[in-house]
Design a protein that fits this description.
Distance between the termini: 44 Å
Shape: globular
Number of strands: 23
Strand content: 15-25%
Strand order of the largest sheet: 14-13-12-11-10-9-22-23
Largest sheet: 8 strands, mixed
C-alpha cells in the first residue's frame, strides 16, 4: 500500500503545480530539501515514509512544471500564408468530410523566407488527400489555436498530445514517402487490411462496431449509433479496454498451457508480446496503454503464483504513465478506465458476496447458485465499475443513463464470444477468406444483438437525463470512498479501534457522524455568506460576455451569460451558495445568442426575479426559447437614465441605449451599457457596444467614468473609440476572450489605444475576480 500513498502524493504534487505559480527552480529546491530530510530521517520507519511521501509530492510538482505549454510553431498561430514541412507521425484519420493527421513540423516558409521550426501540428485537409504514415509533406494554410467548447476543451485534449496548432483547409504536397518506422508501418498496414476484411464481410453498422471493439477504429461507427451507446451507458463496449486485453491474452496462454492454472513462462511471455503488439495496433492511447499494463501485471502475477493487488498495480501504472506524459492524468478516457478498474478491484468481491447471500435468502440453493453465476458478471461488474465511473461522467457530461444496468445485463454476456469470434475471423481472413466469412456470420448475430438492445433502449424517452452536481461534492465523494477503501485495505490500528468502538456504540457513532455532517454543512453555509464587499466576476465563458456581481448584502446580479450552458452553470455554481437558487437581477444586453444562449439552461435551475433588457425584438428560435424561460420573471425594458439602487448601497445605472431599438436596428449599436458603482469604485460593462454607439454616447453628453472597464466586443478591430477610453478613464481593463478566436482579438490597434493600462484577460487568467469595499479595489487575476 505504500505505493498507493506515493502515487497519491505524486498526483497531488502535479495538481499543485497546475494551480500555482511556482517555477521549476522552486520545485527543484523543495525536492532537494525533502531529499535531505529523507536522508536524515531514514533510521526511523515512520519519518522515513512520511518524508518519502513529501519528496514524491515535490517531484510530482517538478515533473509537471517541466511540461511544455506551447511549441515553437505555435507562435505563428493566426498567421496566414505559411508553408510547413515535416513528416506524418501517425496514420491519417479519415472522416466523412475531411482527413486529419499530425505532422512534426521541421521547416517553415513565409514570404519566401524559410526557417527551421519545431512542434506538432494537427492538419485538416480535404478527404480526397492521398497521404500516409511516414510521408514527408508540405502543408500550406492558416494556423489556428485549438478552441474550447461547452463541455469539452479541444485545446486541452490536443495539448495532451503535444499539439498547440491546427492548420485547416490545408493544401498538401507529398515530397517523399517511407520516413516512418518500418515496424509501425507494417502494423498500421495490417490494421488497415484487417479493417478492410471486416468491412467486406459484414454490413453496417455491424462492421463499424466490430472494427471499433476489436481494432479501436471507431470512425466507422455512425454518430447516431455512438450517441445511442452513450445514452444507455454502454460506451465502454466500443472502447478498447482491459476486458479485450485479458480475453486475447487468456486465449493465447490457454493454448500454450492447456490444463494448468499457472501458465508456463513461455506462454506468459507470448501473451505479453501479443498484448504489446495489439496495443500498438489499436492506437496506443492512454486508456489502451493502461489496459495493456494492467493485463500484463495480472499475467506476471499468475506466473509468479501471486495474486496481483490491483490498486497497487493501478498506482504503479498511474505513476509510470504520468512520468512520461503528466497530461495523461487529465485525459477523460484514462480517468474513466482507471477508476472503473479500481471500482472492479475494490467492490466486485464484497458486492458478489452480498448479492449471493440475498439470492440464497430469496431462493432455494439449487436455484440461487445458477442465478448468481449468470447475473454476477453483467450486474455486479457493471455496478462496481459505475461506483467510480458514474461521478466522472456526471462531472464531465452532466448526463446519467437510467437504463445502463439493464442494458449491460443484456449485452455484457455476449461481448466475450463476440470478441473471440470477431478476432478469430479477422485472423483467418488473412489466409482462408471463405472460412473467415462463416465466422463473421456467427459474429454478425452477436453484433446485431448488441446493436438491437442498445437502439431499443436508446429510443426510450427516459433513457438518460440531465444531472448536474457541484464539482466540490464529487471531489468529496471520491475522498470519502477512496479514504474508506484505503483504510479498509490497510487496517491501521487506529482504524480497527475506531471500528470496534463504532460497532459497540452504534447510537453514539450515528450522533457523531451526524454532528460532523451538520458541522460541515454549517461551515459551508457560513463560508458562502456575503463578505460585506462588492464582488465582480468576469466569467470565463469563451468569446462571449458574462459578468456575475454579488452585492455586499449577498444579492446576485448576472449580466449576459455566453452561449455554453455547462460552462455558465459551473461558473455560477462555483460562486453562489449551494442553498441559493435566486438571481435578483438579470441583465440581457442585446438579443444576440452568443451572449444569452446559455441562459435558458441556467433559468431551469435558478429563478431570475427581475430581468432588464433593451426591448429590441428578435424572431430567432433561440430568442423565443429565452422568452419562454422568462415567463415567471418581471421583465423591464430599460433605456438611458434607468437606475436601480440596492439596500446595501450598490447603484446600477443604464447609460445606453437612449431609446428602445426596433428589429431593424443594429444589435451592437443598441446594446445595453451599464455601470455598477459601490462607494468610490465602479465597473463599466460595455458588452458588445459598437464604436459608433460609443461616439453617440459621448455626443449625447454621457459621463461614463469608471474604475474598471469591460473591453467592448472583446477588442476586435475598430471596436474602441480613443475618445471613449479617455472619457471612461479606467484604471484597469477586463477582456473576456477565447484564445482560439479566429479574429485575432484583441487587435494590436486596440491594445495600442489602451497603452500601459493594466489589462486582465480570461484567456490567460481564467475568470477575473475583482472585489472592493467601496474605497480600495483588489483582484486575484494575473495582469
Amino acid at each position: 500500500m505504500r505505493l498507493v500513498y506515493i502515487t497519491i502524493a505524486w498526483v497531488i504534487g502535479m495538481m499543485l503545480a497546475t494551480n500555482s505559480a511556482m517555477t521549476t527552480s522552486t520545485w527543484i529546491v523543495l525536492s532537494f530539501i525533502m531529499a535531505i530530510g529523507v536522508g536524515f530521517g531514514w533510521s526511523s520507519i515512520d519519518y522515513r515514509i512520511f518524508n518519502i511521501v513529501l519528496l514524491v509530492l515535490c517531484l510530482g510538482g517538478l515533473r509537471y512544471s517541466l511540461v511544455p505549454t506551447t511549441s515553437d510553431v505555435a507562435q505563428y498561430n493566426l498567421t496566414s500564408g505559411l508553408t510547413l514541412e515535416g513528416n506524418i507521425i501517425d496514420p491519417p484519420d479519415i472522416r466523412d468530410d475531411r482527413i486529419q493527421f499530425r505532422i512534426n513540423a521541421e521547416m517553415m516558409t513565409r514570404g519566401g523566407r524559410t526557417i527551421s521550426t519545431q512542434g506538432l501540428v494537427l492538419v485538416r485537409a480535404p478527404r480526397t488527400a492521398n497521404v500516409n504514415y511516414g510521408d514527408r509533406i508540405t502543408v500550406s494554410g492558416l494556423l489556428i489555436t485549438p478552441g474550447e467548447f461547452d463541455t469539452f476543451s479541444y485545446a486541452d485534449f490536443l495539448a495532451r498530445q503535444g499539439v498547440y496548432s491546427i492548420m485547416t483547409n490545408a493544401a498538401i504536397e507529398v515530397i517523399s514517402t517511407g520516413h516512418g518506422s518500418p515496424f509501425y508501418s507494417t502494423l498500421y498496414d495490417l490494421r488497415e487490411r484487417a479493417n478492410s476484411y471486416i468491412s467486406n464481410a459484414l454490413p453496417e453498422p455491424q462492421a463499424g462496431l466490430l472494427s471499433g471493439i476489436l481494432l479501436g477504429a471507431d470512425r466507422g461507427i455512425s454518430p447516431n449509433l455512438e450517441d445511442d451507446f452513450s445514452r444507455v451507458g454502454a460506451s465502454h463496449v466500443i472502447a478498447i479496454s482491459g476486458f479485450n486485453m485479458v480475453i486475447i491474452a487468456g486465449v493465447i496462454m490457454s493454448i500454450l498451457s492447456p490444463g494448468t492454472e499457472k501458465p508456463r513462462p513461455i506462454a506468459a511471455i507470448t501473451g505479453l508480446v501479443v498484448i504489446g503488439v495489439y496495443t500498438i495496433l489499436v492506437g496506443a492511447n492512454a486508456a489502451v496503454i493502461r489496459a495493456a499494463l494492467m493485463s500484463g501485471l495480472l499475467i506476471i502475477g499468475q506466473v509468479l503464483n501471486r495474486r496481483t493487488y490491483v490498486p497497487t498495480s493501478l498506482a504503479f501504472v498511474a505513476v509510470l504513465l504520468s512520468f512520461f506524459n503528466p497530461n495523461v492524468l487529465w485525459d477523460i478516457s484514462f480517468q474513466l478506465s482507471f477508476f472503473a478498474t479500481l471500482g472492479l478491484a475494490l467492490f466486485v468481491e464484497p458486492l458478489t458476496k452480498r448479492f449471493n447471500a440475498l439470492l440464497f435468502y430469496l431462493f432455494p440453493a439449487p436455484y440461487a447458485r445458477p442465478i448468481g453465476n449468470f447475473l454476477s458478471e453483467p450486474l455486479i461488474v457493471s455496478i462496481a465499475a459505475q461506483i467510480f465511473a458514474l461521478p466522472i461522467i456526471i462531472a464531465y457530461f452532466s448526463q446519467v443513463s437510467l437504463v445502463a444496468l439493464l442494458v449491460n445485463l443484456l449485452i455484457i454476456p455476449v461481448q466475450a464470444p463476440l470478441l473471440l469470434f470477431g478476432g478469430l475471423a479477422t485472423i483467418v481472413a488473412f489466409f482462408l477468406p471463405v472460412l473467415a466469412q462463416i465466422l463473421f456470420w456467427i459474429d454478425l448475430v452477436l453484433l446485431s444483438w448488441t446493436i438491437g438492445v442498445v437502439r431499443a433502449f436508446a429510443d426510450l424517452p427516459f433513457a438518460d437525463t440531465e444531472f448536474r452536481v457541484d464539482s466540490r461534492l464529487i471531489s468529496l465523494y471520491f475522498l470519502i470512498i477512496l479514504g474508506w477503501s484505503l483504510m479498509h485495505a490497510t487496517q491501521p490500528n487506529w482504524w480497527q479501534r475506531l471500528g470496534i468502538q463504532v460497532r459497540r456504540q452504534t447510537v453514539l457513532a450515528t450522533i457523531l457522524i451526524s454532528g460532523v455532517a451538520l458541522a460541515i454543512l454549517m461551515g459551508a453555509v457560513a463560508f458562502s455568506r456575503p463578505d460585506g464587499k462588492l464582488d465582480v466576476w468576469f466569467l470565463d465563458v469563451g468569446h462571449s460576455n458574462g459578468v456575475l456581481i454579488e452585492t455586499p448584502g449577498g444579492a446576485q446580479i448576472l449580466v449576459d451569460g455566453g452561449r455554453f450552458p455547462s460552462r455558465l452553470l459551473t461558473e455560477i455554481g462555483d460562486r453562489l451558495p449551494f442553498t441559493d437558487r435566486d438571481i435578483e437581477v438579470l441583465v440581457i444586453t442585446q438579443p444576440d445568442e452568443f451572449d444569452y444562449g446559455a441562459l435558458p439552461a441556467l433559468l431551469g435551475r435558478y429563478d431570475a426575479e427581475t430581468v432588464l433588457m433593451n426591448g429590441q425584438p428578435n424572431l430567432s428560435t433561440a430568442y423565443n426559447i429565452l422568452q419562454e424561460s422568462l415567463v415567471d420573471s418581471r421583465m423591464i425594458n430599460v433605456t438611458e437614465g434607468y437606475t436601480v439602487e440596492t439596500d446595501d448601497g450598490v447603484l446600477i445605472e443604464i447609460l445606453h441605449p437612449r431609446t428602445q431599438p426596433d428589429i431593424r436596428d443594429s444589435l451592437d449599436d443598441s446594446a445595453v451599457v451599464l455601470r455598477i458603482s459601490y462607494g468610490e469604485v465602479s465597473f463599466l460593462l460595455t458588452g458588445d457596444i459598437s464604436r459608433e454607439a460609443q461616439d453617440e454616447m459621448l455626443s449625447a453628453g454621457a459621463f461614463p467614468l469608471a474604475t474598471v472597464m469591460q473591453l467592448p466586443q472583446h477588442g476586435t478591430a475598430r471596436s474602441l473609440s480613443p475618445e471613449f477610453v479617455a472619457a471612461v478613464q479606467p484604471q484597469a481593463i477586463a477582456i473576456q476572450i477565447d484564445p482560439a478566436n479566429r479574429r485575432g482579438d484583441p487587435a494590436e490597434a486596440i491594445l495600442n489605444i489602451l497603452g500601459d493600462m493594466p489589462i486582465f484577460r480570461t484567456d490567460t487568467s481564467g475568470t477575473l475576480h475583482f472585489w472592493t469595499d467601496g474605497i480600495e479595489l483588489w483582484t486575484d487575476a494575473e495582469n
